[in-house]
């Protein structure tokens, strides 16, 4: 077991501990360790990253740093946002108005004209399309808001996986995604089709075959994958 996996953020969120014992020093703010054993921290010098020995892994300081995902970390500077390698080196020359975290080796960013799109781990765009919003990829599918204001799902080539547009969408989880149309929220399949006729005011993804939903009158229920109520809460 690598040491960093057992290092925890303390209750004050200003340092780290291992087996109940304080490590390193007191910081202004910290985030948890992520693979390959690096954590974002802020001290009087600014935001940066440390290794599991508490040592800064580079000399630069930033307005904000975030955790490493897929061995890349998002950082914020006065010039804009970008991603660092585990050696503290920018992986591309572009600067963005915001960067997400890499998921499935892909990342959503917002450019200086407020367009959203996705990058690969080399920092190259996956496709030419610009979106009003783009979420993280999960299992090769991401939610995006098109220029017409509606949401759909795309694959890693930027292709729509179904032709149905919604007012809002969630990611696919165990085969189904949450979706909102003019009548309310429901669950849809990968073809973009609702899996039942009911609509709800609020909805959660299915968890082992059942989902928490809320009616317009604020009544919460548990439904199954056919949309049938199995329990009123």
Description:
The protein contains no helices and 22 strands. The chain is an all-beta fold. It has three domains: 1-95, no CATH class; 100-161, Thrombin, subunit H (Beta Barrel); 178-233, no CATH class. The protein has a four-stranded antiparallel β-sheet with strand order 19-20-21-22, with no helix packed on it. The protein has a three-stranded antiparallel β-sheet with strand order 1-2-3, with no helix packed on it. Strand 20 and strand 21 (220-224) form a beta hairpin. It is globular and about 55 Å long.
Q: Globular, elongated, flat, extended or rod-shaped: what is the shape?
A: globular
Residue runs with pLDDT of under 50 for 5 or more positions: none
- What oligomeric state is this? single chain
Count of DSSP-assigned helices: 0
Helix content: under 10%
The Rg value, from CA coordinates, equals 21 Å
Number of domains: 3
What order do the strands of the largest sheet run in, or round the barrel if closed?
19-20-21-22
Strand tally, please? 22
Q: Given the helix and strand composition, which structural class is it?
A: mainly beta
Q: What characterizes the major β-sheet?
A: 4 strands, antiparallel
Write down the secondary-structure element order: EEEEEEEEEEEEEEEEEEEEEE
The N- and C-terminal alpha carbons lie at a distance of: 43 Å
Q: What is the beta-strand fraction?
A: 35-45%
> What's the pLDDT, averaged over the residues?
95
């Amino acid at each position: 077991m690598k040491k960093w996996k057992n290092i925890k953020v303390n209750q004050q969120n200003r340092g780290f501990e291992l087996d109940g014992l304080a490590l390193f020093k007191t910081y202004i703010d910290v985030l948890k360790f992520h693979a390959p054993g690096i954590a974002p921290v802020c001290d009087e010098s600014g935001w940066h990253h440390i290794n599991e020995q508490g040592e800064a892994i580079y000399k630069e300081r930033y307005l904000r740093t975030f955790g490493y995902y897929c061995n890349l970390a998002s950082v914020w500077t006065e010039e804009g946002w970008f991603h660092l390698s585990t050696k503290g080196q920018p992986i591309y020359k572009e600067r963005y108005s915001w960067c997400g975290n890499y998921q499935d080796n892909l990342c959503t960013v917002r450019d200086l004209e407020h367009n959203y799109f996705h990058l690969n781990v080399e920092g190259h765009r996956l496709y030419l399309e610009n979106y009003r919003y783009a979420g993280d990829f999960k299992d090769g599918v991401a939610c995006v808001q098109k220029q017409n204001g509606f949401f759909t799902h795309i694959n890693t080539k930027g292709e729509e996986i179904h032709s149905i547009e919604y007012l809002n969408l969630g990611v696919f989880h165990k085969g189904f995604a949450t979706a909102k149309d003019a009548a309310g929220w429901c669950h849809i399949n990968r073809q973009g089709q609702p899996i039942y006729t009911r609509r709800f005011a609020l909805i959660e993804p299915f968890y082992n075959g059942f989902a928490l939903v809320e009616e317009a009158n604020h009544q919460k229920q548990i439904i199954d994958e056919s949309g049938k109520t199995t329990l009123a809460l």
